[in-house]
Amino acid sequence: MKTISIEKITFKKKLSMIEQFSIKDFLFRWVGEPTEGLDDFLPLEYTENVFAKMEAKQETTLLINEDELFRYATITEDNQIVIGVLDSNKELKHRIISLDEVLIGKHS
């Protein structure tokens, strides 16, 4: 995953139902298609606070790269999938997911 500065990203203000479903479908595949389904494994809710995103509920604890806490996924105006994570210092980082990671399902 490539880390990118927030100033270089243009987030969408609204996501269509198709875009919301696409994010959920991507995340389901990316985390390895859990048998319990994405809604139980990683409950998400659609929010438009600052920008549109599929945000993890507060009780969710999906760790990425062993020390980053998943917070949300969204799509940029350039149709790139971006995830927001909190690092071990509780600093928000943004990662662009590459096509290879989408196809392989690599998240750690």
Percent strand: 25-35%
Shape: globular
First-residue to last-residue Cα separation: 10 Å
Order of helices and strands: EHHEEEEEEH
Major sheet size, sense and barrel closure:
7 strands, antiparallel
| Uncertain segments | none
SSE class: alpha+beta
Integer count of domains: 1
Structure description:
This protein has one domain. It is 22% helix and 30% strand. The protein contains three helices and seven strands; from the N terminus they run E-H-H-E-E-E-E-E-E-H. The protein has helices spanning 17-30, 38-41, 99-104; strands at 2-4, 44-47, 53-56, 63-64, 68-75, 81-86, 92-96. Strands 1, 2, 3, 4, 5, 6 and 7 form a seven-stranded antiparallel beta sheet that branches. It is globular and about 35 Å long. The model has no long low-confidence stretch (mean pLDDT 84).
Short description:
The chain has 108 residues and is of the alpha+beta class. The protein contains three helices and seven strands, in the order βααββββββα.
Features:
7-stranded antiparallel sheet, globular, alpha+beta, about 30% strand
Secondary-structure blueprint of this entry?
Layout: E1 2-4, H1 17-30, H2 38-41, E2 44-47, E3 53-56, E4 63-64, E5 68-75, E6 81-86, E7 92-96, H3 99-104
Antiparallel strand pairs: 1-7, 2-3, 3-5, 4-5, 5-6, 6-7
